[in-house]
């Protein structure tokens, strides 16, 4: 007897994103179940960040169906934004605001009460406690990435979208990000991680989707891309 | 140790390399223009060139009334000083002059301070205040000289003066930036500015401004330039040669100072970026939360703060020096509001920088985000306008009810007009810019010229309109302001609707965050 699995939190069907003449994403299908973490892998321009931006409600899909927790992203964008936590691939921080001011804004718009303790704990975990009241314009790239992960995760969203969270981040930051992903999975959130760092993706996620030229060329268990053999498999999928 | 000729040879070689690099950067900048931007830039350059030729030639054929000609002749030396003042204020306020290539783009290339300096000189005329003053000078010279072969010589002298004044302004701009970057530099710069203000105030209060302007060397430049109508003279050649020597010396001095500036860190920028700010209580509403973030984006930015201070103070000083009466003060709000918008308002979403993506992922109605940005823009422009008017009122005395109503209503109308235009342009043509540098502009230089010309035209028209209303009962100002305000509000609502469209917002956010 076939036992149906849990309903996917993230459901993407035939997603197309066009920028003028360019098809950034061409008919991607995938689903992420509660408590699962999926890696989006691929070369530059493969469509990873565009897919993440669609899921974050920042880019409207040109075609296809994208739903988060059953809400259509096209018609219920605001609801979807409430359900997601997004760490963008570039910057992601308002240059002249402090980390605490970022958190205050997010907490207000997400209707969070008593968020301060968790925010402090996360800032400490990512070693940002000492700079919580400094403007982010003076932050290093790695500090900026770490704060972006904090901002994505601190309201414990059902869907965590991390675009290049390990880029330029030191080992302490990588470990803290891994903990955040593990915590999110443990409470039943769906996690999507877009990265170029294959080994970290394997470590953080159980599934991987390899994108090439805007299309998904493979959906496979992340463990299949582990080690030397996995590197060969991945390399083969990129060409 | 290298000999003096060897040093001179090395400096000449460096200067030549800088010129070659400048050409390369200009090509790089032009190559970056695509499609519509390229066409618009070509049209813009063509219009500026055509306007320059027309204003330098057509007024010569106007009817020559001796009395009017003498009036213009008398004012020309002061107008020549005017372009120097405009150049100095622009160069000083923009931390040494505009960048030919934005800092974040140029960082990958070995751009020398000399190339940077030459780039700032090339960019200096792409400033509406400079352009308008230059056109006024060219037109006035043509009017006084009249038609004939001497007109070319007169205008040649004027062009050399424009180049000399710009080069001298650049020296002052770099000099002030060098001072600002030193120890206690901010206070030293403030002291210099206050001293300059006090000298100007003394000259005005003691009725010495006009004699000082008459005694300025620009009188000789004017005489030599206009004397060319009667043919070439030794006096003309001597003045031209002196100007050329001053110009070349100023270009060299500017390059030397630019190099000195590049060796000093931008202390106030780095201080601001490493400063800690006491957390405030949690905001009580969504709008307040966003207004706070938008507000600090302006007040924690060194160039924006400096620019707004200059805008609030300079027109006020001009009003005091010129003894402007209340019926003329209606012009000032337009000047201040336009200037404020040109600091950042015409590309208002760029205040978020790369944080725009994250902000757009937050669950909030796009129209509320739009309202917050408008709110902050209105607030900033009103504060700067109020500062100017308070200063101007110090000499203008107590206004009548009609004058007060005209100034207030005119001020509110131009602020609404400027905000409406700025937000429309911000949504229609966003640009990715790093406004951390005082030398950055919110849009490319030619676009800025277009924006400033349009703002100057519309706000000056409104200012003149309310200047007329200052002579009639105050109710007229209020009545006339209402439809103008409603028109601006209607345009703002249209822009807010455009912003609420997901595709439009996505384009804006992706551009400013890139």
TrEMBL record, chain B:
Keywords (A to Z) from UniProt: Membrane, Transmembrane, Transmembrane helix
TM spans (from-to): 40-60, 72-97, 118-144, 156-176, 188-205, 235-258, 304-322, 328-349, 370-392, 404-425, 446-470, 476-493
UniProt entry tagged with the keyword Membrane: yes
Name of protein: ABC-2 type transport system permease protein
Species per Swiss-Prot/TrEMBL record: uncultured Nocardioidaceae bacterium
